[in-house]
Specification:
Strand content: 25-35%
Radius of gyration: 22 Å
Largest sheet: 8 strands, antiparallel
Structural class: alpha+beta
Distance between the termini: 41 Å
Number of helices: 10
Oligomer: single chain
């Protein structure tokens, strides 16, 4: 079961891989520095919040938090920079920021005022990863900035400690609360196992950071109806589900807004992703093919990159064509050595745009009924 949890953790990391695309850039002036990792830029009289990709400065309240902020301010405030971004989450563009050709994130690492967050480097290329690792290592060796401390506490560890203290205050036992929240030793497909840092922020800062519970104190065994007025759909889903929205550019730099809904239990993992963007002369069939290719390719990229487990590769087999509420659709069987599942993709051209819905369920033996309940309850509301 541990391998199942590791597999699903990797898959959850790439839920939106089908819509994550190539980076886009903008030129803007830095008008404010909020922290050692966040800043505000102005582009054509429009303010945009930016977060340095894979760079984790000390949290507010930690040593060197003010130093990191002041250092970033000294580097970029009132300067015109290039913002190289891939997605929008939690109100921020996650981006690399360049000034005169210098990657400011790497400079922050080299100057010893931030950590390299390996868990959020999924859309950096290998050259960037090597650069960031080398910059941090050089700062460590030279004991620059925060590395002059004998045992500096990483910001994700600081957040974990603070959460444990809060848990202890609220429930009197941080260990019990931790197990309840993160799944502890229990080998299940719970949201905490599957979504990991997507809920806690401790191991990932992808475009899914905005995920939030659809209800408080939900349970996989207690289902509820979820309706999206913006994306015009409804579905029955376990009440422990989490949902969020984000924006990512397509290969031409056009913004693609999308919404994610996901829930996990002991036997099943349920996901719905929907988005709308420029049609780009796609036919229905091509749009479905491209969506499936991105979904399966992203899942398997995550498995090979993070698990190095070629025997757990997921494959998709076409089952049947669907026609649903005016949308063209297709159903696929998903298989791997550990899991089975079903994916349904629906699409429709609306004017110059194309709407796409992706639903999939991954299950262990015994979870098939849950999968059917989720998939068959889906409705498109116009």
């Amino acid at each position: 079961m541990n391998s199942v949890n590791r597999l699903l953790a990797a898959l959850s990391f790439l839920i939106c891989s089908a819509v994550i695309a190539h980076a886009s850039t903008l030129q803007a002036k830095v008008v404010e520095v909020k922290t050692g990792g966040t800043l505000i830029v102005s582009n054509i009289n429009r303010s945009v919040k930016v977060r340095l990709k894979s760079v984790a400065p000390p949290e507010v309240g930690q040593p060197f938090a003010d130093t990191a902020r002041d250092h970033l301010k000294a580097l970029v405030l009132d300067q015109t920079v290039t913002v190289d971004y891939t997605h929008f989450a939690d109100g921020y563009l996650d981006a690399k920021v360049f000034l005169n050709g210098i990657d400011i994130g790497s400079q922050m690492l080299r100057d010893g005022v931030a950590w390299y967050d390996h868990a959020s480097d999924y859309d950096l290329n290998q050259t960037d990863r090597d650069l960031y690792a080398q910059c941090e290592q050089a700062a460590r060796v030279e004991k620059r900035g925060l590395w002059n401390d004998v045992s500096p506490v990483a910001p994700w560890e600081f957040r974990r400690i603070q959460q444990a203290k809060l848990d202890q205050m609220v429930q009197g036992s941080s260990s019990l609360r931790s197990k309840a929240r993160f799944g502890g030793e229990k080998a299940t497909l719970s949201n905490s196992d599957l979504m990991g840092a997507l809920m806690s922020g401790s191991t990932s800062s992808s475009g899914l950071q905005g995920l939030r519970p659809i209800v408080q104190n939900g349970s996989f065994n207690r289902w509820t109806s979820f309706e999206s007025s913006n994306a015009h759909f409804s579905v029955m889903i376990p009440s422990n589900a989490i949902e969020g929205t984000s924006i990512t550019p397509d290969k031409n730099g056009s913004p693609i807004p999308f919404q994610i809904l996901a829930a996990g239990g002991e036997r099943a993992f349920l996901v719905l992703v929907c988005g709308k963007g420029p049609n780009q002369n796609y036919t229905d069939s091509r749009a479905i093919d491209e969506t499936l290719r991105g979904l399966i390719g992203g899942m398997n990229l995550g498995i090979s990159r993070h698990l190095n487990a070629a025997d757990e590769i997921i494959s998709a087999n076409r089952v049947r064509d669907l026609n649903f509420a005016g949308f063209a659709g297709r159903q696929y069987n998903l298989t791997s050595n550990l899991l089975s599942g079903t994916a349904r993709i629906f699409t429709k051209r609306i004017g110059d745009e194309r709407q796409v819905f992706v639903l999939y369920a991954l299950t262990l033996p015994g979870g098939e009924g849950v999968s059917s309940q989720f998939l068959n309850s889906f409705k498109i509301t116009q």
